[in-house]
Amino acid sequence: MTDTFAHRLPLNQIRDGERIDISADEGERRQIADRLGLRSLDRLEAHATLDRKGEIIRARGRLRASLCQSCAVTGEPIDAHADEAFDIYFLPEPTSGGGSDEEVELVEADCDVVFHDGSAIDLGGAIADTLALGLDPYPRSAGRKLR
Q1: Please, what is the Cα angle at 108 between 81 and 57, to 5 degrees?
Q2: Cα(82)–Cα(11) distance, rounded to whole angstroms?
Q3: Could you give the C-alpha distances from 2 to 30, 67, 79, 136, in angstroms and in order?
Q4: At what angle do helices 26-36 and 123-134 cross, to 10 degrees?
Q5: How many Å apart are CA 55 and CA 78, to the nearest integer?
Q6: pTM for this one?
Q7: pLDDT by residue (tens digit) across 81-138?
């Protein structure tokens, strides 16, 4: 995803246990809706708690969104809501040292990993990605089935 909904948080300003609330403004919602092929995105907000261990940041929280998709069969508008828990690890970008393959060991089985550049994380971009992954890829109006 692009940085349309970028909320870059400098690593040197992130405190362990910090709570972050972010909300997409109208322009950000319109750009995210266009990118995701939505008719509209009327609300996108997230609440997260950040845990920090050195350069590893863990963001746990919930995103909420109100949106409108198009029926995959008829093209009719379908109103939908997203209410998703997320657990995202932000890890330093792996370096390629001497051609050896580095392994990244994940702490939790059910988490997403986003790499950062060592100076900041993009919480907004990760939230937009989480929304994209949670969307119904073939939304259908009531009583409509794909053939």
Answers
A1: 80
A2: 29
A3: 13, 19, 25, 21
A4: 40
A5: 41
A6: 0.81
A7: 999 999 999 999 987 654 445 555 555 555 689 999 999 999 999 999 999 999 999 9
Q: How far is Cα 115 from Cα 93, in angstroms, rounded to an integer?
A: 5
Distance of CA 90 to the CA centre of its chain: 12
Listed as own residue / partner, the contacts of 40-47 with beta carbons closer than 8 Å and 24 or more positions apart are: 40/67, 40/68, 41/65, 41/66, 41/67, 41/68, 42/66, 42/67, 42/68, 43/67, 44/5, 44/127, 44/128, 44/131, 45/21, 46/20, 46/21, 46/22, 46/86, 46/123, 46/127, 47/19, 47/20, 47/21
How is the chain split among helix, strand and coil, in percent rounded to 5? Answer: 20, 40, 40
* Strand runs labelled E in 5-124: 8-10, 18-23, 40-53, 56-70, 77-92, 112-116, 120-122
